[in-house]
Specification:
By secondary structure, the protein is an alpha/beta fold. Helix content is 39%, strand content 18%. The chain is built from twelve helices and twelve strands. Helix 2 packs parallel to helix 4, helix 4 packs antiparallel against helix 5 and helix 5 (147-160) runs antiparallel to helix 6. The longest helix is centred in the N-terminal third of the chain and has 16 residues, at 27-42. The two termini are 32 Å apart. Bound molecules: adenosine monophosphate and manganese (II) ion (2 copies). One manganese (II) ion binds at residues 22, 26, 28-29, 86. Residues 88, 92, 269, 287-290, 293-297 line the site of adenosine monophosphate (AMP).
Length: 326
């Protein structure tokens, strides 16, 4: 039996299921959690869904996202099966990590840095998004789609491909996007909710990032400190997507954005254009991701220290790295 069918048969045979996503959730993660949980509910199962972090307000405009619960709300639930989506390592589920040790776990993901931490792992690194794997699974199980579920599921395909323009955009993701649109997904709704909802404060935060920006040959980097966020009345979600602005610069191969929120907690976002495999750098620092988009996080450190460490590793990786397309 293929891995895909093994996952399907496990999902079909269990009744009491918990679907988990990752901390600092993005569109693909939220879409995958909500779509899989809703799909399983439509098959008559008892399903709960959770993410151990805040969900940015605009994702709540999508159907089934309001069914995603917090760590606290899940205290008394004892699932027979946990399905972890869009997570490359067990720490990505936050405080749910301990629960994974005592339960049967399926991992559904598309990160090449995946540690295969489930009892059953379906990791397709050729998939542009986890949400399209979820769609294929829902379809194989006979889940009935309506325009609401189709739109929620389409969200993940759109956001993980940068609205079908990143290097992971291929015929497969476009075909599945087209199927979802045929089922009633609304591309314009998704694009306007995600891309056209920036507050004036976010523009000021963007200006701050540009003010701090430094260029070193093919490397561009910038940072936002906790004080920057506080002084503008912003939080960490407000800088989502900013690193792509850095990568959009001419003649740049790699862009790095350092964000500190709250004090001492630093997230590093890496993006590359053509040849530098940034997932290798992020993995070496305890994070993960994809060749062209990766990240890692720190706690209890000074922003300057993180910047120095990450930059020296990146400069090292860039020396001679041009020959090694990864
Ligand atoms: P970001 O820069 O946060 O948008 O993340 C880019 C990619 O790297 C996404 O695929 C994330 O899932 C992955 N990623 C980000 N942070 C981490 C982390 N701390 N550990 C593992 N993967 C991460
Ligand atoms: Mn993700
Ligand atoms: Mn993803």
């Amino acid at each position: 039996m293929t891995k895909f069918l093994s996952v399907i048969s496990q999902l079909i045979s269990e009744d009491n299921i918990l679907v988990l996503g990752h901390v600092m959730p993005d569109g693909d993660d939220i879409s995958s959690v909500a779509s899989l949980a809703e799909g399983l509910r439509r098959l008559g199962k008892k399903v709960r869904a959770a993410i151990d972090d805040q969900i940015p307000w605009y994702y709540k405009l999508f159907f089934a996202v309001d069914s995603i619960e917090s760590f606290e709300q899940l205290q008394d639930f004892h699932p027979d099966l946990i399905v972890v989506v869009d997570c490359s390592s067990p720490d990505r589920v936050g405080r749910f990590q301990n629960l994974l040790k005592n339960s049967k776990t399926i991992v559904i993901d598309h990160h090449e840095t995946n540690l295969m931490f489930g009892d059953l792992n379906f990791v397709d690194v050729t998939s542009a998004s986890t949400a399209q794997i979820v769609y294929n699974m829902n379809k194989a199980m006979g889940v009935v789609y309506d325009p609401e579920l189709a739109t929620t599921n389409y969200l993940g395909l759109a956001t993980d491909t940068g609205f079908f323009k990143y290097s992971n955009t291929d015929a497969n993701v476009l075909k599945i996007a087209a199927e979802l649109v045929e089922l009633g997904a609304k591309p314009y709704f998704v694009a306007s909710v995600i891309l056209e909802n920036k507050t004036p404060q976010q523009f000021k935060l963007l200006a701050k990032m540009i003010e701090h920006m430094k260029i070193e040959g093919e490397l561009v980097y910038s940072w936002l400190s906790y004080e920057d966020y506080l002084s503008l009345g912003c939080n960490e979600d407000d800088s989502s997507g900013f690193v792509s602005e850095l990568r959009s610069m001419k003649d740049i191969e790699v862009a790095i954005l350092f964000t500190e929120f709250p004090k001492g907690e630093i997230h590093v976002s890496f993006r590359s254009k053509q040849w530098l495999n940034v997932s290798k750098i992020a993995s070496a620092l305890g994070g993960g991701g994809h060749a062209r988009a990766a990240g890692c996080s720190y706690k209890n450190v000074e922003l300057e220290k993180v910047i120095d460490e990450v930059l020296s590793l990146t400069r090292e990786a860039m020396v001679g790295g041009r020959h090694e397309v990864g």
